[in-house]
Amino acid sequence: MTPEITIMREELPPMRPPRRHLLSIEDLTRDDVERLLATARSFDQASQRELKKLPTLRGRTVVNLFFESSTRTSSSFELAAKRLSADVMSIKAAGSSVDKGESLKDTALTLNAYDPDVIVIRHAAIGAPQLVAAVTGAHVVNAGDGKHQHPTQALLDLYTIQQELGRIEGVHVAIVGDVLHSRVARSDIQALVLCGARVTLVGPPTLIPRGIEAMGCEVSADIGAIADADVVYVLRMQRERMLEGANYVPSLREYTARWGVTPERLRPGQKVMHPGPMNRGVEIDPRVADSPDALIEAQVRAGLVVRMAVLYDLLTHGPVGVPVEAAMEVA
Ligand code: CP
User: Fold this and answer.
1) Could you tell me the distance, in angstroms and rounded to a whole number, from the CA of residue 15 to the centre of ligand 1?
2) Ligand 1 atom closest to Cα of 75?
3) Which residue's CA is the closest to the ligand 1 atom numbered 4?
4) In terms of C-beta distances under 8 Å and separation of at least 24 residues, what long-range contacts does 246-252 make, across chains too?
5) Which CATH superfamily is domain 53-147 in?
């Protein structure tokens, strides 16, 4: 007879909550977005203090894995994790064993051996973050996968609009340029529509995906359509993602002449955003980029507190709009 084994409850390993990831804006409800933006506001207040570091994620490990170049996203995730007192490892493809032919799966399994709590990944291949989520035990954050998704960019853009205009609901955003190759555009359209904004896409028909109106936005090939927008969101011409030999526009000079965002095409007070990096003189006139109505530096600042909020939310299931003092007490 098999002896009965009784396991006392206290002998069981502590139940780990199911892992949550941030892979796509599609995974979020409006409540999720509002909770994340409220948490980011709390961290924004904490960042005004002389001593900016919080003990919130002490003992946690965040791995930043960047297989594509980045300035804003990689630096803000690293600083966000450090501001929350997590241990941080930042790995870029160049100089890692990826150079020797190691696959994404093997790189992820190798890093998983350190038992990281969060892996932040940017990769040129659509679905790379899902693969990392499948083979590791970490919460995974998509920091940009090909032309698919860049959810934290969309959240920081919403945060910037809310801080500047006091609301997102009912705001009219014109997104101008290369929508076809833009993960930022796809994520922003989903997030803005989810939160009740109106979105108009403006650009050459060759750079606007057919049928994109199904996402709840309007489309125009006429740059004049930016006139009644509250926010003009300028996209970079992503030459590195364009098919070789494909003629999306006759020339960059022609693109600039027809769709470049210049002071002459804007109303006073219209806000201008750009995810960066900018091609000054191509999609955006330098006078626009440097004008007081440009929110481009505010977007970068928002990136830090929004990414702090994302790390905090994934690791603590934090309460809505947690006050800074309460956040500091969460070990
Ligand atoms: N907006 C953005 O993703 O910028 P980086 O490529 O510099 O991270």
Assistant:
1) 37
2) 8
3) 72
4) 247/206, 248/178, 248/180, 248/204, 248/206, 248/207, 249/204, 249/206, 249/207, 252/282
5) Aspartate/ornithine carbamoyltransferase (3.40.50.1370)
For residue range 236-278, list pLDDT tens digits in order.
Answer: 988 777 766 668 888 889 999 999 999 999 999 999 999 999 9
**From residue 250, how far is each of 124, 179, 218, 246 by CA, in Å?**
26, 17, 24, 10
Ligand 1 surroundings by CB, under 6 angstroms: 70-73, 144, 153, 275-277
Q: What is the mean pLDDT of residues 17-43?
A: 92
pLDDT of residue 107: 96
Distance 41 CA to ligand 1 centre (A): 22
Task: Give 323's pLDDT tier (boundaries 50, 70, 90).
Answer: very low
**Residue 324, pLDDT score:** 44
Residue nearest to ligand 1 atom 6, measured at CA: 70
Enter the pTM of the model: 0.90
Ligand 1 mean position to 156 CA, how many Å? 12
53-147 and 151-298 have identical folds: yes
Choosing from 70, 74, 233 the residue with most ligand 1 atoms within 8 A of its CB, the one to mutate for a pocket test is: 70
Q: Which CATH class is domain 151-298?
A: alpha beta
Domain positions in the chain are 53-147, 151-298
Can you tell me whether residue 302 is helix, strand or coil?
helix
